[in-house]
Amino acid sequence: MNEDQLLARLRAADPALVGGTPPPDVDQLLEAAMTTTQVPAQKSGTRRPRRPLLLAAAAAVALTTAGALAWQGTRSPASSPSAAPLVLSVQAADGAAKCAAPSVDMLRANTTAFEGAVTSVTDQQVTFRVEHWYRGGGDGRTVTVDHADNLEAVSFSTGDSYLVVAQHGRIDACGGTVWAEPQMRDLYRQAFPDR
Fold first, then answer.
1. Higher pLDDT, 19 or 134
2. How far is it, in rounded angstroms, from Cα 175 to Cα 143?
């Protein structure tokens, strides 16, 4: 999701803009809140202004509205437990092929790239909790890789973090999926500088 899409989603969720209502006139609201209204004279003959009460009420409304908007803006499909995991599969390598070291150009050619911690490993499948999206993936927080045993150069361990790339849902056996170490993270940052 890019910045424009996020801004459009936030605008669509803004309750103040629903129904095509115009934005409030802040100056007029402040003037109305600060106007002093006198209460009837008390027995002592003094008048007590209602200004502090109006200011407190206006402040409470403003804080409540700001809090609700901030909360609404932080909610995302990624936080919902019903978000479906992204499923990738590993393309088997040609038995005679030798893998080249990952390069910036090789990584850039991929449509999906992320760093994730392994949460489970079976004979054929590895599940990741995504820690950072470099490219693709949207709001998902879980990625499952089928046929992970075809990645001969990488052995996955639960709890370890890995850098993973895929092209249209398929991970190339020699495509740059590696253990997450500082040097490789720097290479991924160079390949995907906008994230």
1. 134
2. 17
pLDDT at 151: 77
User: In the structure, what pLDDT confidence band is assigned to residue 195 with cuts at 50, 70 and 90?
Assistant: low
Helices in the chain by DSSP H: which ranges? 3-13, 26-34, 51-74, 104-108, 182-191
Mean pLDDT taken over the chain: 76
Amino acid found at 112: T
Burial of 176 (0-12, 13-18, 19+ CB in 10 A): buried
User: What is the reported pLDDT for 116?
Assistant: 94
CA distance 7 to 13: 10
Residue 29: phi, psi to the nearest 5?
-65, -40
Residue 19 is given by DSSP the state G
Q: How many CB atoms lie within 10 A of CB 77?
A: 14
Place 75 in a pLDDT band, splitting at 50, 70 and 90. Answer: very low
Coil, strand, or helix at residue 87?
strand
Instruction: Residue count of the chain, please give it.
Output: 195
Distance from C-alpha of 141 to C-alpha of 131, rounded to nearest angstrom: 8
